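Q: My labmate handed me this sequence with no annotations at all. I'd like to see what the chain might look like in three dimensions before we decide whether it's worth expressing. Could you predict it?
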Amino acid sequence: MPFNINRPSARCMFLLATVAATVWGQPNRQGIWSPLANWPLIPLHTILTVDGRLLTCPMPDGGLPGITREAVLEIASASALPFDEIPLPVPLLAAAQEAFLTNTSWEVLPIVRVDTRTIGAGRPGPVTGDLLARYRGLMRDECGARRIDGASVSP
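A: Here is what I predict for the chain of 155 residues:
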């Protein structure tokens, strides 16, 4: 049975990268491999900042929401930072002032470039930095988060 990239369990970024390399293994004309060049929508745990609003994809039926994504959206809501859950076509990256991924391991990981496209100013932006600091504060407050070496996690 062929792999269905739209299945909810395919949300793991590493699995998606492996599948994308298999499905879209050919580089573009500039010699750059680009899964987004052939993918109509931006992956689920990506959040864009466009004109002062956070934009992220809605959860698919049966999809796993992601605890980090959910926490970041709760932080945004509590901070009166508006967000919409809408399908995100790849060309919307051109309008984004900031972009980041959410993941338990990465927390809030800024995206500054996709292929040859620079996102915003090409460095992590203030909204991303603020959400990361607030997320780390939440983890410290709710979980008593400490690094493996025992040092306190600081924003």
